[in-house]
Design brief:
Length: 69
């Protein structure tokens, strides 16, 4: 099991993680704004995540953490 956590309040909606994901399972939440006024990244299909950590490495603000169980 992989647990991916996105700290939405710190996300600046740059979309780099969305582009970095080989499984195309991240997207910016178009109908949601965080406290900073950005559309935060969100996970669309946790089961499809292969825990490659591309998203976490790409994020300039270390918003994404990945834990393997
Ligand atoms: S760990 Fe890899 S597969 Fe999972 S969301 Fe991040 S980039 Fe996509
Ligand atoms: S790379 Fe980081 S800051 Fe940019 S959209 Fe993804 S989680 Fe948010």
């Amino acid at each position: 099991m992989v647990q991916l956590t996105i700290d939405e309040s710190r996300c600046k909606g740059c979309g780099l993680c969305v582009r970095a994901c080989p499984k195309k399972i991240l997207e910016l939440a178009k109908n949601k704004l965080n406290e900073k006024g950005y559309h935060p990244a969100q996970m669309m299909d946790q089961a499809a995540c292969v825990a490659c950590a591309s998203c976490a490495r790409t994020c300039p603000d270390a918003v994404i953490t990945i834990e393997k169980e």
